[in-house]
Amino acid sequence: MTLHIVSKSPYGCNALTECLATFAEGDVLLLIEDGVYALTDHKWEAAPAGSVYCLRADAEARGIAIPEKVEGIDDTRWVELCTRHNPIVSWYK
Amino acid sequence: MKFALAVHSAPHTSQSAASALRFARALLAQGHELYRVFFYCDGVHNGSVLAAPPQDEADLVGEWQALQQAHGLDLVVCIAAAQRRGVLSESEAGRLEKSAANLAPGFELAGLGQLADAIANADRLVTFGG
């Protein structure tokens, strides 16, 4: 059950698309940094319901509203997510 | 739980290096162990003591040093990546006949074996890149 961390905007690279192509049952997606720009598009909706998280501070810093189906989390919850999932795969290219 | 972090990005290039520091602080605050932080590729610039950001910007090098002092962290800079980018310890500067050294106190130079060791011994590896 992998935790996928996407940190780049889907408008600038294919990180999110490639990540979603590898998504397996039980995996979750965390959007951080410019990765939160994905919330202004619909690609993330390909992930199963309840499996998408974003760093609330990074979304707020960019003025991006967090959709109802996405859980905005703080750094403490980020660490908790990492303890519950293994491996942790970072997508940034 | 034991965490290891791999930092591939330089300060000020993107948010990534700052995210790594933020994550390190959060996991330590929750009582987890930070087994090692391995600075690789452009991440070696996190270990340059010569970085002098403006006062109203984050000083990532200084903040890593403070965290290292507070928690006795193992901050390892990849020696091969560092040589290419001009991040040298006193001994490396001497060996390579360079006129100055800039590896920040609290950081040490070592090989990729230290990353492999961290992956083998930590419960989780989190990579910060781009």
Automatic annotation (TrEMBL), chain A:
A family per Pfam: DsrH
Entry GO CC: sulfurtransferase complex
GO BP term, pick one: tRNA wobble position uridine thiolation
SUPFAM superfamilies for the chain: DsrEFH-like (SSF75169)
Domain of life the protein comes from: Bacteria
PANTHER family referenced in this protein's UniProt entry, alphabetically: PROTEIN TUSB (PTHR37526)
The protein's name in its UniProt record: Sulfur relay protein DsrH
Source organism of the structure: Microbulbifer thermotolerans
Gene name of the record: tusB
TrEMBL record, chain B:
EC primary class: transferase
UniProt keyword Kinase, yes or no: no
Gene Ontology annotations for the cellular component aspect, listed alphabetically: sulfurtransferase complex
Pfam families: DsrE (PF02635)
Biological process annotations from GO: tRNA wobble position uridine thiolation
Assigned keywords, A-Z: Cytoplasm, Transferase
GO molecular function term, any single one: sulfur carrier activity
Name this protein carries in UniProt: Sulfurtransferase complex subunit TusD
Name of encoding gene: tusD
